[in-house]
Specification:
This protein is an alpha/beta fold. The chain has helices at about 5-20, 30-50; strands at about 55, 60, 65-70, 75-80, 90-95, 100-105, 110-115, 120-125, 130-135, 150-155, 160-165, 170, 175-180, 185-195, 195-205, 210-215, 220-225, 230-240, 245-250, 255-260. The longest helix has 24 residues, at about 30-50.
Length: about 270
Amino acid sequence: MNQAIRIFLDSYVGAFRGRIKMGKVITALDCVLFIMAVIAGSVFLFNEVKASDNEIYVDQVGVTANIDLEQLGAGNIIGGLTAVAGSMTALDLDGTSMTLDINQIGNSNKFLGDMYADSYTGYFNFDGDTNTFTSKMDPTNAYGADNSNVNVNVTGSTNTFTLDLATTALASGTDLDWTVQGSSNTINADIDVDGATNYMNIDGDSNTVNYDGDGYAGGYFHLTHAGNSRAFTIDQASTTDNDWLKVTSSGNNGTVCVNQDDQGTAVGC
C-alpha cells in the first residue's frame, strides 16, 4: 500500500469524524466505509512495522568473550564494515579466546564485521537466499589469528561470502570448515596461511569459489563438490614452502583454475 493510499485513508477518517461533530446524518454505508478505512489503515501500519529490518550493533573488547547472536526473518543486519540501513556500524570484536555464534535464518540478511583475536572460535549458520557474509579477521595485525576455528554452514542460493583471515603468516594452526548446500553461491576466501587448513564441502549447481592462500609455512586446502557449471579459482603462494591441494568434484560444465607458486609471487589464471 503506497503513501497516496495512506493519505487518502487519513483524510477519509478525518472527514467522517468532522461530519459527526457537525451533526450531519451518518448512513449505514458511511459506517461500513469508515470501518473498512480503519481496518485498512491498521493493516498498513502492521505491514510497515513488520517490514522493518532488525539491526544488531556490538562493540566488544576483552578476553574469553562468548557471544551468541540470532536473527529470524528477512533484511536483517549484524553490523560493522559500514553497515548501512539505519547507519549502524560496529560488530567490532577485540580480544583472545573468543567464541562467536551467529545464526541468521531468512533471506537478504547481512553479517558484516571485524574481529581481532587469537584462539578465536566462530560458528556461522545461514539459512536462506541472497544473504551476505563479509568478515575480516585481524586486518591490521593487532593480535594475529592463530589457532582460529571457523565453521560456516550455508543452506540456500545466491548468497555471497567474503572472508579475509589474518595478515601475512598470522593464521597459524587455523582450521576453517565450510559446508554449503545450494546453487549460485559465491565464496571469496583470502587466507594468510601458516600451517592452516581449509575444508570446503559444496553441493549445488553454478557455485563459484575464489581462494587465495599465501604465507610462509604452507597450507592445506581440500575442496569437495557435487554439481554442474562450477567455477573454481585457486591460488596458493606460500613463500619458499609447500602448499597442498585436493579437489574432488562431480558434475558437468564449468571451469577450474589452479595456480601454485612457492616463491610467494602474484599468481592468476
